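Supplementary notes for students who missed Thursday's class. We covered one full example, reproduced here. Read the sequence, then the structure, then the short commentary at the end.
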Amino acid sequence: MKLDNAMTRAWAGMAARERRLLAGAGALVALALVWLVGVQPAWRTLRSAAAERAVLDAQWQAMQRMAAEAQTLRAAPPLAPGLALQALQQATGRLGPAARVTLQGDRAVLTFSGVQGDALLQWLAEARRGARAKPVEANLKGDDGGLSGTLIVSLGGRP
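Structure (token representation):
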């Protein structure tokens, strides 16, 4: 109560010009606060929304393409083991002499060393499309020369 009375007395004791200046300063502070808290964040969001939407649309389209590819691969009948192995050996040839593929029942094992990650991804994509192979297990080690390890894929049956 004392503070309220003191403020009322101080206000009444001011000249009209001082009251107008103080009221103007208060209005300016209130306007700045409204801008900083209410308008500016919404303005930023509105400006960046179009770019974010374009990025999200591109991601959605990529996911739709991958879903369509997965459905196509799921619907494709399995290849004969000989044809699947031939397709895998063809893809493995692109990895160079540091990689070889062996058949173990309905699974193929790719053993490699010093292979770059992009090349391994391309091999896996080609194995999925060409041999209709499904990845089952991967044991990878990374070093300065690339990746080393084994990659097991299932041919024909479900993993």
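Commentary. The first strand starts at residue 99 and ends at 104. The CA atoms of residues 111 and 150 lie 5 Å apart. If anything here is unclear, bring it to office hours.
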